Structure formats: C-alpha cells, structure tokens
C-alpha cells in the first residue's frame, strides 16, 4: 500500500500529533498566509498548555486569536501582537507568558533552528531589555547579543500549491514565515489552496521541497480576510 502525504481534512492531518504542552510554529503575517483551518482543528482538539511561535497572534476572533479565546496557549514567542486585545488582557493578567523578539531576530532564530544552528549573535536589541539575561560579546568594538535557534514539535503552514510529494509553492507575501517554519518543525503539516499532479512544478519554482513536509490537507474553501481595510475617497475625474 502506497504511503500518502495527502489527508482528507485538517483533523485527520493532525491526528496522532497533537498533545498538551507541545511547541507549535504557525506561519503567517497578520492574517496573510496563516494556516487558519489547521488552527481551527487545533482548537477543536482541546489540547492546552501550548507554546506557539508566530510573528503575531492573529486578531480577536481569527487566527491564533481563536486559541487565546479558549486559553489553549500558555506562552507566545512573537514579534508583533498589537492587533489582539485579548492577547494584551491575558498578558497583563499574568495568564499568558510572552517572549518578545525583534522581527528579524525571530525570523533568524527559526531559520537557524531549521539549519541546525544552536545559537548566533546579533546586534539587534543590544543595550535594551531584549538583551537582559542573555550572553553578550563584543566583535570589532560593537556589542552583540546571543540568540538561540528555535525548533518546534509541529509546524503548521499555509501554501498556495502543493503536489502529492509535499513540494510547496507560496503566493507572493503569503510566503512570509511559512518556508522557514517548514524547516524547523519535527512534524510539518501544510494546508494548501491547490493540489496539483506530480511533476507539475518546474523544480526551480519550488519554494519548500517535499522532504520537509509530512502531511498535506487540500482546503475546500479559502477565506482571505483583511486585517485592516484602509480606503480613500475616489478623486474626481
């Protein structure tokens, strides 16, 4: 019997993986490129005590905000969380632990984890609260902060297209954190908008090779929400 990476739905794709207290990386930037359907399946599973690595925590009522509503997240390793009121409330009440990272540092910590690099030095954050409790070293007269690479038990990512082997292509800015997180998870589950036949991709067009991807779920419906809609009045002709 041939082994397949393609699963019928998000619940099936996460079966046997989820457990209390695990670390999960979730791709996306704002609401762009987030694995929304996989997040909903995690919520339905009821797992708790999660550490989640993500640029942000979605917004109230969407994305990772759904897991904050159910108190399933105990710690966030993030960069920007200013769009989520519930996030702030839980943090200020001492219900949620936060490990803040400069955005570039977060991306590099994930990339380093995926590349097998345990730590690296960066000048970003030196002399600020970001550096408190961390090793520092001076190189060429400038102070650098040591940051640890990040890995996760599970990475959940959103891609535009996939083939049955798990080769992935992302669409424009929806790529964001998804490719690096695919390299840094012990298990990687991808939700995809389109599933194409094997051999459809030009090898040079593949963003994430299938060797990194364990399971795929083809989305029946994709809702692409806009985090903040900004418009201006139409100018007179």
Automatic annotation (TrEMBL):
Gene3D superfamilies: Glutaconate Coenzyme A-transferase. GO terms for molecular function: CoA-transferase activity. Signal peptide: none annotated. InterPro entries: 3-oxoacid_CoA-transf_A (IPR012792), CoA_trans_fam_I (IPR004165), CoA_transf_BS (IPR004163), NagB/RpiA_transferase-like (IPR037171). Keywords: Transferase. SMART domains: CoA_trans. Coiled coil: none annotated. Pfam families: CoA_trans. NCBIfam families: pcaI_scoA_fam. Belongs to the 3-oxoacid CoA-transferase subunit A family. This is 3-oxoacid CoA-transferase subunit A. It comes from Acidisphaera rubrifaciens HS-AP3.
């Amino acid at each position: 019997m041939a082994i397949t990476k393609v699963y019928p739905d998000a619940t099936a794709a996460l079966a046997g993986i989820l457990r209390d207290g695990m670390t999960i990386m979730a791709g996306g930037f704002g609401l762009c490129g987030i694995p929304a359907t996989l997040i909903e399946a995690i919520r339905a599973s009821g797992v708790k005590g999660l550490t989640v690595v993500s640029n942000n925590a979605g917004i109230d009522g969407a994305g990772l905000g759904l897991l904050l509503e159910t108190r399933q997240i105990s710690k966030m390793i993030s960069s920007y969380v200013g769009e989520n009121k519930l996030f702030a409330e839980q943090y200020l009440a001492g219900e949620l632990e936060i490990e803040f990272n400069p955005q570039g540092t977060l991306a590099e910590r994930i990339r380093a984890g995926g590349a097998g690099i345990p730590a690296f030095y960066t000048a970003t954050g030196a002399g600020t609260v970001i550096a408190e409790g961390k090793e520092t070293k001076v190189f060429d007269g400038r102070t650098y902060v040591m940051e640890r690479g990040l890995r996760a038990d599970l990475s959940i990512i959103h891609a535009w297209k996939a083939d049955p082997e798990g080769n992935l292509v992302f669409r424009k800015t929806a790529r964001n954190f998804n490719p690096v997180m695919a390299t840094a998870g012990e298990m990687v589950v991808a939700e995809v908008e389109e599933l194409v036949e094997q051999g459809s991709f030009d090898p040079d067009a593949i963003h994430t090779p299938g060797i990194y991807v364990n399971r795929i779920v083809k989305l029946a419906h994709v809702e692409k929400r806009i985090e903040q809609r900004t418009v201006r009045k139409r100018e007179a002709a």
